[in-house]
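Continuing the series of single-chain predictions for the mutant panel. This is the parent chain; the variants come on the following pages.
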Amino acid sequence: MALTGLDIFKLLPKTNCKKCGMPTCLAFAMALAQKRAKLDDCPDVSQEAKDKLAAAAAPPMQKVVFGTGDAQVQIGQETVLFRHEEKFHSPTVLGASVSDKLAGDELLDRIKAVNALQFERVGMKIGARAVALVNDSGSAETFAKAAATVKGNSELAMILVTQSTEAMAAAAAQVKDGMPLLANATLETADEMAKIAKANGCPLVASAESIEDLADLSEKIKAAGVENIVLELKSSGLNEKLFDHSRVRALGLRKVFRPLGYPIISFVTEGDADAQAASAISLICKYSGVVIVDMVEPYAFLAMLTAVMNVFTDPQKPVQVEPKVYSIGEPDENSPVMFTTNFSLTYYTVESDVEASRIPSYIIVVDTEGTSVLTAYSGDKLNEKTVADAMAKFGIENMVKHRKLIIPGYVAVMSGKLEEATNWEVMVGPRECSMLPKYLQEVWN
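Parent structure:
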């Protein structure tokens, strides 16, 4: 739990020497509590005090990374239960499983199918970020061989899933330079799994059926020298798992209960693609840092990825596109000109509907700090001046010989003032973006 100014004051020298730049040690302690000063500013503080303050200041949830290079992923380091309290920091890592029972072309095809789960949505590239190799064969040799094949044919971060310490040791030794996540250790295998994780420099999953056992297990693994731990709760059903995940999150963050201050992993293996996607989306919301499914259907995976985008978008910082003039198709001097805001969802909706019209066009994106058309207009971030300034800044008058501007139907009230500010003829477009193709084909032409 965060220390108060008085708690910090008790750890300071109390000499009021002013070397820190503050008039008293109490003033310095209050500044530290408010994060307006650094402990290093006090030259006389003891090492013991430094250690205590560092422990208290540590994030309530451990950051864990696995994978290397561009494939490296980060989970954990969350600070709040609900996004509106601040924001979520580490988007859920989604991945799919590969069985080591597969061999030859079947194994390669499955790996390729997982690799191919990549998409682009509202200008952002999203996709699978992990591949989980499962030791279904029960053979250590087969598992290790399959791990080497996965590593050689996938750039995604790897998760090794086995209950066998022998199989884990063999596979981890094969791919340790890729820093895989080892899943998983139980109370019975904790000591041996921790040795393997420590020897290969890999994070380790602690797996138990109850929160109490999970706390004991994480402490046991930490005592064995493994700091990077991921938690798995083997609850009996989805409802119980969601409830338990919420309890773990609350205990870890609100109570700063260190044995549960780690990210969570979930494996979804039951049901068809639709059922797995539905369960996975629930687990993304409550509070899985990694979700592994046992399917590779693109449509279902895209739904999961969209949920991650929605949950982990910073509510205080909307996703934006760069304000400029965008060319749709190959427009010329006779092509229509329209504007919209730089809120990503708004822009890409307009873009797709303009593309559907098959009429090459120019879209002026006005900087409204990432807000939609109506929101920007009501907040006075979209008005005749901001539109006129954008048109002048981007030189749209040099791109077309006509002087006609199509505006969103919802801000038709801007027409008169916008014509005065730009000396362009304003054409009021449809209210609904889906009507743009028909409008461009019938009204513009």
